[in-house]
Amino acid sequence: MERNIQKNGLINLALLAVGAISAYLVAHNGNSLAGQVGACLMGVGVLVAAISWFQARLEERERLEKLEFDELSRSATNSALFTASETEILPAQRSREQFERIIVPVFTGLLVLAQILLAVYFWRQLAGGNKVVPRDLQFGMAFFAVVALVLFVVGRFSAVIARLEKIRLLQPSATYLLLSAFVSSFITAGYFGVWFGYPQSDLYLARGFCVVLGLVATETLLNLILEIYRPRMKGKIERPVYDSRLVGLLGQPEALVTTAAQTLDYQFGFKVSETWFYRFFERALGWLLLIQFGLVLVSSCLVVVDPGEQALLERFGQLANNRLPLGPGLHLKFPWPVDQVYRYPTDRIQSFIIGSEPDPKIEGGKVILWAAPHLSEQNFLVANRDLDAVDATNAAPAGATQHPPPGSLLSTSIPVQFQITNLVEWAYNNEEPVELIKYIANREVIRYLVGMDLNDVMSISRWDAANTLRERIQKGVNEHQMGAQIVFVGLQDIHPPTKVAPDYEKRVGATITRETVILASRAAAYYTNVMASARASNILSVAQTDRLRRNVDLQAQEAVFTNQLPAYAASPSVFIQRAYLATLSHALANSRTYLLLGTNSQETMILNLEDKVRKDIFDSIAVPSPKSK
Q: CB–CB of 374/368 below 8 Å?
């Protein structure tokens, strides 16, 4: 019987070695990362099976040595052979003790180090994502399925023998056989996933195996540390330190039920595991799990599409019968993983921002200034047409070097809003449509701003710039057949970079002051020219009026003289008298006149000469000051 146990251990070791080597070769040739990491897990099992088999041989030698020693002790009790110490006459026992005290801890430490290195190495290999799709899928599925079956049968047999016969050194290789069988089953499932159009399933399995490697290494390291500080009790057989309880749990999940039963028995103080309810639950556990799994599958046949959404139904990774997208409501489908549904918000307006985005951490207050940090800035290159430089360039002679207009940096925030109009094109024509729209929008913004003037973009050209950008982005979206419509493109938060904003404000202020002075000078010049023109026109009009008046007066005088000749000829005395009287009345019209009537009166005339006869004469007379001698 004992030799059969050793044979079982050797068979386990051989199966693990052949399975690990062949699995690694098949996985490496088939580009399966999950298969390679699983083969490394089998390789760890090969090391554990080898050390446990060797330790079992040492214990077998020790057992045979003790039997021989007992037989000799009964036949010759007075022999000098038995006067020596037991350690001198039992070398196999001494070898086994030294092996367990020195070799096993060192081996366990090296095993932990190997597991950690393997886990870290493969995890780094998988960090960038699996860009290689496994090939030879049919052969890989068949091979790992056969490996899983063989390892499970042999491992299950060894585990039962180890539990019934209480052979602790057969348990490690048996648990690793079962774990390798489950790993091979998962690798087969990963091949099936790649077969059905899910190439990432191999990557996810490889990462999961790396996590298992790391957890087993951590547990083995803790066992090693506890083993070093564990008190030794003579005669008590301990579990091998390299035998992982986690591997045993993963290889034999039914042990959870046994552990739960023992825990319940301990907590309640009686054999709960022997009650009818527990027995029924233990017998019906498989059916309960199967029913629950069936309910989950049935529930996956119902699909509810929310309002404002549309969904695509895929069957084995392909659009189901070229069906139209599913609208809002309840729909039926085949259970997972045959059919899968992907929902998209087709009625919702989606948006993103190109350039500077508001930062709530630094955005404060209701008033936002250019010079105060208020958003996460991204600067764009914009043309800056200096009018003086442009005029000088245009005025330069032919053949002279002409310099292009200088460039400036502009910080702006450009929200872009879009809506999905063709769900099939949106989902299948491009891998990451949202990122592609962002790339197209960013490209068109850079191309547009590099040819625009800084001042125009910040002032009069915002609306035209927004419309032009929307048309250009829509054109790029149509070229890639993305099935989306650009609804709105806006320009907001347009300003120079925060660091140069104060200097730009000073420049703008100086420009405004210069324009104000220029406009004031133009207004003054216009006012002066208009007033001079009005004065000249007034003088000319007065001169023309005076000339006309003089001409009319002279013509009137001429007419009067012509008309006076017949009157004079008719009565010269009367004409002369009337002319005299007319001249006299005209001369005395504005003069003070004194009439003296009667020549025989002796009246006294008093004249008040204080009155001014002519104000314009007497007011202009200045009395000269006396000259000093």
A: yes
Identify the pLDDT of residue 567. Answer: 80
In our burial notation (b when 16+ CB lie closer than 10 A, e otherwise), range 64-78 reads ebeeebeeeeeeeee
pLDDT band at residue 235 using 50, 70 and 90 as cut-offs: low
- Average pLDDT on 608-624 reads 57
Structure tokens at 547: 């000339």
557 and 409, same structural domain?
A: no
3-state secondary structure of 324: coil
Residue 500 has phi, psi (to 5 degrees) of -105, 5
Q: How far is CA 600 from the centre of its chain?
A: 132
Query: Which tens digits make up the pLDDT trace of 449-463?
Result: 877 777 777 777 778
Three-state DSSP class for residue 542? helix
Question: Domain limits at 329?
Answer: 300-344
Cα–Cα distance, 206 to 588 (Å, whole number): 136
Residue 511 in this model has a pLDDT that exceeds 60: yes
Arithmetic mean of pLDDT, 404-427? 79
Peptide bond into 337 cis (omega under 30): yes
Query: Which residues are CB-contacts of 79 (< 8 A; sequence separation ≥ 6)?
Result: 72
Mean pLDDT of 251-271: 60
Cα–Cα dist 271/385, whole Å:
93
- Give yes or no: residues 439 and 480 share one domain: yes
Pair 337, 386 in one domain: no
Instruction: Assess if residue 531 is contained within a domain.
Output: yes
Task: For 248-300, give the secondary structure using H, E and C.
Answer: HHHHCCCHHHHHHHHHHHHHHCCCHHHCHHHHHHHHHHHHHHHHHHHHHHHHC
Residues 479/410, Cβ–Cβ less than 8 Å: no
